[in-house]
Amino acid sequence: MSGRFDILAESSGARAGVLETAHGPIETPAFMPVGTQGTVKGLTPADVRSLGAQCILGNTYHLWLRPGEDVIERAGGLHHFIGWDRAILTDSGGFQILSLAHLAEIDEGGARFQSHLDDSQRTLTPERAMAIQAALGSDIAMVLDVCPPHDATLETVRLANERTTRWAYRSLAAPHAAGQLVFAIVQGGVNPALRQQSASELAEGAFDGFGIGGLSVGEARADTWTALEAAVAPLPASRPRYLMGVGAPDDVLGAIARGVDMFDCVLPTRLGRNGAIFTPRGRLSLRSASLASMSGPLDPACDCAACTRFAAGYIHHLVRAGEELGFRLASIHNLRYLARLVGQAREAIIAGRFVEFAATALAGWQRPDDAAAQRNRERYARDRGRTSPEPT
């Protein structure tokens, strides 16, 4: 039955469950690769299936602007259009509106903005966002929300919260496709009281699940955890929780420990396209000279095509030479790394040993240094003012 969510086991706050969708089950915890334009960058649907993905993301904003929901609907819906036979979640476009803040006017009715593609004037309302997603035929539709920047004032965040709640209930009342699940989005910045209030107000609605948005957008990591814990506490245990835009392995495990079930992020493919991979000890640049003469795999424990078919020295050569295959193999490895990680976490939860598993998995993990983290925050600040909201 579409929408049914069964929790099979819990271990120290972490949950293992199954969410039923119109295109098959999603076993949780689950990481969902991002296919903003209807494709996970550089990979075919067969690639993504082979990596263990049960659900991918599409973006309402981008698919609406190009090629248009009418084109996709005539093609038989997004599944047929892109050749993907498993679940699809479509984001509503709220984050893209934030990225276009300099081009957008937002009021109670919705958002009016200038397209970054052709400068045409567009209006996106909660009802319009749901209508587009109904035409796309996704399995999970996200409500339109207001996502304030991480450095917004308390009053700005409060007003965004109130509007997000009103928009969520308008979205819930709007028509949606048969079997399509509707997820609300909890906002509230890094203020625990506002996070708790947002979650409490949305928890009263008949939503099929709850996204937690507006985190991992430049705030301090300690603030992320405080806000997440405040958001999760009021949410009904019987419905899935989805932390939006989080994909670093240590963050994924930290969020699973706090009761989160689903994740998405562009990080694994973005890193791959920049020649870096996840390893048990942290991120590794494939340009590192230490790999040049390495005849073994990048990660002996990994079963992806990059690690089972090619030597690390060869992939290093491809990346140094700018060959697309090198970046493609890096993306394949990173997505498989996360799929394996959440799969192992699920097994550990069912076995009642999640804490031990997480401690072992993170024993050698090193995060980017503080300078790198600051550069990421500065990049986010720049991205808020760019003309293209493409989450590359």
Which short descriptors sum up this protein?
about 40% helix, three-stranded antiparallel sheet, about 400 residues, 16 helices
Number of helices: 16
DSSP summary, beta strand count: 16
Structural class: alpha/beta
What fraction strand? 15-25%
Please give the radius of gyration in angstroms: 20 Å
- Mean pLDDT across all amino acids: 92
- Give the % helix: 40-55%
What is the overall shape?
globular
Description:
The chain is an alpha/beta fold and 392 residues long. It has helices spanning 45-50, 60-65, 69-74, 78-82, 94-99, 126-136, 154-173, 192-203, 221-232, 249-257, 267-273, 305-309, 312-320, 324-350, 354-361, 370-383; strands spanning 5-11, 14-21, 24-28, 30-33, 55-59, 87-91, 104-106, 111-114, 121-124, 140-142, 181-186, 209-212, 241-243, 262-265, 276-279, 282-285. A hairpin with a 2-residue loop joins strand 15 and strand 16. The protein is globular, with a radius of gyration of 20 Å. Mean pLDDT is 92; it is low at 376-388.
